[in-house]
Amino acid sequence: MRAISKIVIVLLIIAALLLPALAVSAQGGTWSTGVNVQNLGTDVAHVTFKFYTPTGALAATYPVPASIPVGGVATVYVPNIGDLPNGRYSAVVESDQPIAAVANNVDLPDQMGDSYLGSDPGANQLVAPLWYRNASSYYTKFYIQNASAVAQDITIALRKAGDTNPTVIKTYTAVPAYASQEVDLATADFAALENSFGAAGVQGSSGDIALVVSTNKMPGGASTNLNTEYRGLRPSAASKNLVAPLAYKDSSLWNSGIMVVNAESVQATILVTYTSGIDGSNSFGQITLAGNAATALYLPSAESAGNPVPPLPAHWFGAVELSSNTALLGIVNNVKYASAGSVGVSYEAFAKASGTSAIAAPLVFRNSSGYESGIQVQNVGAVATNITMRVTATEGSAPKDASNNPVTGPWETTIANVAPGGVATFYLPTDANLSGIHDLFGAASFTSTGGVPIVAVVNTTRYQAGMAMNYIGINH
């Protein structure tokens, strides 16, 4: 009998219509979710979703109708599951092969959305490097799932940026098995945070948990709304060398902030290297950070004691590396403010040592309902390498060429001689091998030559609808 592989798709698995408690929520809107599951195994995968209500009740069991071939991908659009009522859910995805999964949450009327990765079970503690409470009109909600089979208490501790001790500690008692606890920082329970931002730690009293952090900016009007999401980070992911393959300073109106958490109790001295994605040149900054504290590097700001970002040129984009005497965790927040539609995305910075020569990206688009994807792949090894992207269409999709003839793929593109620390940009709309292709959504895989380690960030936009989503590639 095959072993069962599980991924916890934590929270915000939304079967159409509204989030609960809309009247008091800073989030609101009409949300829907699609989940892409990619088979990373050596045989066909048989996949089943189990959906749980916020109180932990099993709402539906959904076997994916068709098996997923090796390297293939299946899409489950949650509103199409007929016996699942409208509402908010968490889900456990079971498979007889190793899998990767991405949840894509969108609120088209309010022009918001983002993506996050499914989480493997096994984490009793998680870190959220970035939250907001009425800071520049940003508000955060945490969705914490009890990923164990028995009830447990869940505690969240929040500290402001720069502080070494929590300002608020709150415990939710006897959270039922598989239930999801919503934590809304806009409520009076968190008034002591005032108008601020910072980092948080979340812990279960006896078992595993999973976490998604969802932040909205809703200043009034769909064109200025934006949403970012990321999954909680394991403390074991902390590293003395973090990399962020994609950051911006006023590049096509995109700008970046990087929230850095010192995961140790001693002061950190952090060297920050900014590598241009245009010419490969490097700029350097340095920061000190107290033990257990968090701080933000905001790339558009001028260099100062509080924000030691060197004078990067206008329209800069590229990769950022942080090297420290202590272990760090980080979240990259990329935003684009535009009158036609503001967008924002978040992703977790990588431990440099987590790079591998193979990456899975379960969700990419090429001119599908207006969505387009680009993938930034960074060489985190010591020698140059060739990086190959292979795109496959999801099962049941119908991509076409420029003459509207059906095409099946897969499609492959190689970028040669990517230098150590350098980045390769695979932008699907301008990829010659995908010229004229439309209605393509599916998955991508990336491999390097010589076993050189690489990492990747997947960025998808639908600017005409004010939408952007991203997630990190899955190293395996």
Summary of the model, kept short:
The protein contains no helices and 33 strands. By secondary structure, the chain is an all-beta fold. It starts with a strand and ends with a strand.
Annotation keywords:
Hypothetical Protein Tm1070, Chain: A, single chain, 9-stranded antiparallel β-sheet, 3 domains, mainly beta, globular, 33 strands
Whole-number total of structural domains: 3
The CATH class of the largest domain is identified as: Mainly Beta
Tally of extended strands?
A: 33
Bin the strand percentage. over 45%
The rounded Rg comes to: 21 Å
Structure description:
- The chain is mostly beta strands.
- The protein has three domains: 5-117, Hypothetical Protein Tm1070, Chain: A (Sandwich), CATH 2.60.290.11; 238-353, Sandwich (Hypothetical Protein Tm1070, Chain: A), CATH 2.60.290.11; 355-475, Hypothetical Protein Tm1070, Chain: A (Sandwich).
- Helix content is 0%, strand content 56%.
- The strands form five sheets. Strands 25, 26, 27, 28, 29, 30, 31, 32 and 33 form a nine-stranded antiparallel sheet that branches. Strands 9, 10, 11, 12, 13, 14, 15 and 16 form an eight-stranded antiparallel sheet that branches. Strands 17, 18, 19, 20, 21, 22, 23 and 24 form an eight-stranded antiparallel sheet that branches.
- A hairpin with a 5-residue loop joins strand 19 (268-276) and strand 20.
- 53% of the residues are buried.
- Mean pLDDT is 87; it is low at 1-29.
